[in-house]
Amino acid sequence: MADLRSNFIGIKSPNPFWLASAPPTDKEVNVRRAFQAGWGGVVWKTLGSEGPPVVNVNGPRYGVVYGADRRVLGINNIELITDRPLEVNLREIKSVKRDYPDRALIISLMVPCDEDSWKAILKQVEDTGADGVELNFGCPHGMAERGMGSAVGQVPEYIEMVTRWVKQHSRMPCIVKLTPNITDVRKPAEAAMRGGADAVSLINTVNSITSVDLDLFSPQPTIDGKGSHGGYCGPAVKPIALNMVAEIARNPATYGLPISGIGGITTWRDAAEFMALGSGTVQVCTAAMTYGFKIVQEMISGLREYLDDKDIAMTDLIGRAVPNVTDWQYLNLNYTTKAVIDQDACIKCGRCYAACEDTSHQAIAMGPGRVFSVKEEECVACNLCLDVCPVENCITMRELAVGEIDARTGRPVRPYANWTTHPNNPMAQAAE
Ligand SMILES: Cc1cc2nc3c(=O)[nH]c(=O)nc-3n(C[C@H](O)[C@H](O)[C@H](O)COP(=O)(O)O)c2cc1C
């Protein structure tokens, strides 16, 4: 059976599945139950320094986007960092770590941007025996307005400065958690590395308004007639997170910087995708909030089975897809496919026809009896028919071999050529 034990920047855990810093990790009772359910690690909900208390709203904290079956696709939250007293959290962390020495226990931190505040809290966290710290430079609401969270994460110089303080004043491994609310995520990751971070984690939540109440004319969640932007997470943000993880994993400037992947992970498959793009561990929040702690058991058995079927070690999965992430100009422009409709599977709904006829390349014909067929001479292989078809595998794409005649161009399919070498590229011609 595949070995899922993980050693991430020296932090050991029995599996790579960690709970992200959020309500599921806000207190001892939750974290103990999470560990009992099988989570390999936990990032404790963000602690702040002593000072003005953190005050949350007393109305709804969440706005939700549902799929057609009322499945939760995304959650927007306007919650702040922990509002529980620091000393209570520290006492609980110590007690949990004592009883679960084999699990990863990372403490998320967010304190004002001055060296003394960081120095003070690091000492207190170190005394708990926790395995490491995660610097929360990502929360986009509430704390950002006070110069913390994403207000730091959006300025690479601040990231570098604070990370350096943390490494100077603590022996603990340091993970820098990045905000996605930025143009180029490589820059904050580079700054974290310059500051001495042992790893980065991403993504924190995406700035968002999930919906507007059309009677109150206020964003939801609505607090006494008004709303504010919040942080979006859950399956809807997974594609954004995967891209950002890949951008960092393949950036030569941060090559080898360990990554803890976060964002919409709900199944073992999601986790495996993050790992293939370079994540050494993964963190989960929304899936646990939606389905409970035991969801980790499916993740563990699914990942194990996948690795066994593939006959690869988990360490071989990590980063395995990174060399295949490239820039558009390096894609093979001579790779040619054509849509094929399985007439036995077709339910004659006509979605492929409507989509192709109205919005794409008029490459699907509708014959008598609503028989749909592909006009290969028009098909550009855009995939839209397959994407909108409600029957899985009813439409597939057939790859043309090199030398086979493409009915659309009337020419044989040529061997590999990307845009940098393509004959239609004037720059390529000039270079010849
Ligand atoms: C209600 C809520 C509170 C959160 N609080 C924190 C927090 O205190 N610190 C932090 O770093 N991230 C916080 N997050 C962000 C999560 O840790 C995680 O980065 C994000 O939810 C994406 O993961 P997911 O798609 O699995 O939910 C919070 C998320 C939610 C939904």
UniProtKB/TrEMBL annotation:
Listed GO MF terms: dihydropyrimidine dehydrogenase (NAD+) activity; iron-sulfur cluster binding; metal ion binding
E.C. designation(s): 1.3.1.1
InterPro entries linked: 4Fe4S_Fe-S-bd (IPR017896), 4Fe4S_Fe_S_CS (IPR017900), Aldolase_TIM (IPR013785), Dihydroorotate_DH_cat (IPR005720)
Residue ranges of every copy of the 4Fe-4S ferredoxin-type domain listed in the record: 337-369, 370-400
A cellular component annotation (GO) from this entry: cytoplasm
Keywords: Iron, Iron-sulfur, Metal-binding, Oxidoreductase
Iron found in the keyword field: yes
Keyword Metal-binding: yes
Reactions listed under catalytic activity: 5,6-dihydrouracil + NAD(+) = uracil + NADH + H(+); 5,6-dihydrothymine + NAD(+) = thymine + NADH + H(+)
Function: Involved in pyrimidine base degradation. Catalyzes physiologically the reduction of uracil to 5,6-dihydrouracil (DHU) by using NADH as a specific cosubstrate. It also catalyzes the reverse reaction and the reduction of thymine to 5,6-dihydrothymine (DHT).
Oligomer status and interactors: Heterotetramer of 2 PreA and 2 PreT subunits.
UniProt-listed PANTHER family: DIHYDROPYRIMIDINE DEHYDROGENASE [NADP(+)] (PTHR43073)
Entries under NCBIfam families matching the protein: PRK08318.1
Record family assignment: Belongs to the dihydropyrimidine dehydrogenase family.
Official protein name in the record: dihydrouracil dehydrogenase (NAD(+))
Organism: Paracoccus litorisediminis
Gene name of the record: preA
